[in-house]
From TrEMBL:
Keywords: DNA-binding
Domain of life: Bacteria
Domain spans labelled HTH merR-type: 26-79
Gene3D superfamilies according to UniProt: 1.10.1660.10
Keyword DNA-binding belongs to the record: yes
Organism of this sequence: Candidatus Limivivens merdigallinarum
Name of the molecule in the record: MerR family transcriptional regulator
Chain residue ranges for the region called Disordered: 1-20
An annotated Gene Ontology molecular function: DNA binding
Keyword set includes DNA-binding: yes
Length: 284
């Protein structure tokens, strides 16, 4: 086959040589890809990536195909590096077992990557954060609570997920699923009802308009969202007694709003219980 020809469907066709302007010198390739000039020279020396052309003994010129091959090399290099790091980590853990030491320690499962993902998610997706958590403040509060339990969480991550990377991917997937869930109009209505409950704390929790809101939440929850009575018992109790839940949810509902919602649900549950007792006395 003559120079400037290649086969296409069994026939010889003329090809256009790569123009001078499409060629890149080694320093341009290094700047474009982030690979050092010395590394590119080394790849050339071992035959891994030879430049398409040379000018004299010093200048290497790379074409489009060379750049594509370099991208493949970098991909597999990263893949092998990740596998090697995991293997080295496994070897370290096995050696600890041989010495009779505890295999799963927090040191091997540093959660900095997880917290970086959360911070990146907050910075890049403020609207999604508000959609999922109700407010940026609620998100920040949640992350801070997790940081306080970082060491305990690290051990649980090690046991349940095997690596922080697996855990982080699981959380990212969870964010996506939660976002899809929040698009449910019934969930949006329930969230609006909670806000409505806490909009005026001067009302008596037994007032008809307050209890109508609670009843709507319960009705939607049980008929559309598969909630059970235990969910309302949790709201009634935890929203009044759990300091962490009160502190966090007050970021959404305002100071005192969480406890007020808890009292409104407690009143509702008491009313339901009394109604059932009355029905029982009539049937007996």
């Amino acid at each position: 086959m003559e120079k400037g020809e290649e086969l296409e469907n069994g026939k010889r066709v003329e090809t256009q040589p790569e123009s001078e302007k499409d060629m890149r010198m080694i320093r341009e390739v290094a700047k474009l890809t982030g690979v050092s000039i010395r590394t590119l020279q080394y790849y050339d020396e071992i035959g891994l990536l030879k430049p398409k052309r040379r000018e004299g003994s010093r200048y290497r010129l790379y074409g489009k195909e060379d750049l594509e091959r370099l991208q493949q090399i970098l991909f597999f290099r990263e893949l092998l590096t990740a596998k090697r790091d995991r293997l080295n980590g496994l070897i370290r853990l096995l050696k600890k077992l041989e010495r009779g030491e505890e295999a799963l320690s927090f040191v091997e499962f540093d959660l900095s990557g997880y917290f970086e993902m959360l911070e990146r998610f907050r910075t890049q997706n403020p609207k999604k954060v508000k959609k999922l958590f109700g407010s940026l403040e609620m998100f920040d509060w949640t992350v801070e609570k997790i940081r306080r339990k970082e060491q305990t969480l690290g051990k649980k991550v090690a046991e349940q997920y095997g690596s922080v990377e697996n855990f982080t991917r699981s959380i990212e997937d969870g964010f996506q699923q939660a976002e899809n869930l929040m698009d449910n109009p019934w969930i949006q209505r329930v969230r609006a009802c909670y806000q409505e409950l806490a909009s005026d704390l001067s009302r008596n929790v037994g007032d008809e308009d307050v209890q109508d809101i609670v009843k709507e939440i319960v009705q939607i929850g049980e008929t559309k969202l598969h909630a059970t009575g235990k969910a309302w018992e949790f709201v009634a109790k935890a929203f009044q007694e759990n300091p962490g839940i009160i502190e966090g949810n007050d970021l959404l509902y305002g100071k005192g709003g969480t406890e007020y919602i808890g009292r409104a649900f407690a009143y509702y549950l008491d009313s339901v219980k009394q109604g059932r007792e009355k029905e029982g006395s009539f049937t007996n």
